[in-house]
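Record 1 of the preview.
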Amino acid sequence: MPRSPQRAHGPAYLQVRLPATLKNQVIDRCEALQCSLNAWLVEALQKALRDDLGLPEPPPAKAPLPTPADMIREWAVGERVLMPCGKVGRCAAVDDDGVWSHDGMGFCVSCGIRVV
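->
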């Protein structure tokens, strides 16, 4: 009799049985994309879960996430940082109307970054 799934707290390991042909196809795809099997599977599972829950796909980012060095430079030098939503210095999520909620989490309406 199979065991019931246990909830994880932090990083977790997941063991899955699948046909060898499917595993080989996934490995070939990962090699073509030059990414690790783990990274590809995490992205595929997140996309499948988003689709299953009906969550919208986040729009493409206009800039990468700012690094801590970018944020320190903004504070120290006054250089404005471009956020992924395209806003300079402040994300749209800073405004109350710029956040949409799902299942107790808040996301920026412009860039889809989790803020709450």
